[in-house]
Amino acid sequence: MDDWAEIRHLHSTGKHSKREIARLVGVSRGTVDRALAVDRSPTYQREPTGSSFDAFVGQVRVLLAVTPTMPAATAAERVGWSGSPSLFRAKIAELRPEYAVPDPADRLVHPPGFQVQCDLWFPHEDLPLGHDQAAAPPVLVMTSTFSGFIQARMLPSRTTPDLLGGMWSLLQEAEAVPARLTWDNETGIGRGKLTEPAAAFAGTLGTQIKLLKARDPESKGMVERMNRFFRSRFMSGRAFTSPDDFNQQLAGWLPSRTTVSPGRDEGGRETWSASTGRRCADFRRWRRR
Question: Which of 92, 113, 135, 243 is most buried, taking the most CB atoms under 10 A from its CB?
């Protein structure tokens, strides 16, 4: 590299011929020509020597084409691999995406204004309710699947009137109605079939209340994650005097006028990221309905 830099320096002065530069640096004339032909410093590149796995690539591809999920240990046994298990696993990991069927969950698309996931969260600590009584009333959580906009409110109970009243109150705050409200089989909303009040509520607003099948957590994963986030980030170190105090603190803690979503920074810590534009797009689509 020193020779390359010196050759280009001497040539840039315009005072030396290529033959003279070769003599001053102590290299051949061809080396001078090659140094002047490139404008980047030379780097050392080792010629690829191949891998012991190369002889087994064809057999492995045949196995993965038939069984994309075949474990690496099984494939190694089938092809007679006797080398390093870790090397074989690494090579299998490089080839498998070419044959594995994509996870359907990876292809979920949430258009703006289409869906809000709803769920009930129960605080892990009782709150004072007055008259020497304490309990953990349900908290209605609603999360937009497009923008990640979050709303939550503690309700008196999980009965149908309180659930519908809670949804109506939060929708009024949002000033918009989505195309679909997604629930699991909550008794106050419906189990397999909507309750009559819930069906009337949806019909009045011109929306759909979608009841999920049993044991289908993936379809409501965003709001489920928010429930865990509330428990770890909102409840920690707080004290409440009543459900009203709980709702006031919750409203102050939630950035209710900004689209927010939980993420992770480079250190793995959970953070909030704002995206007002996504929420505006979400709400514009809601209003067009």
Answer: 113
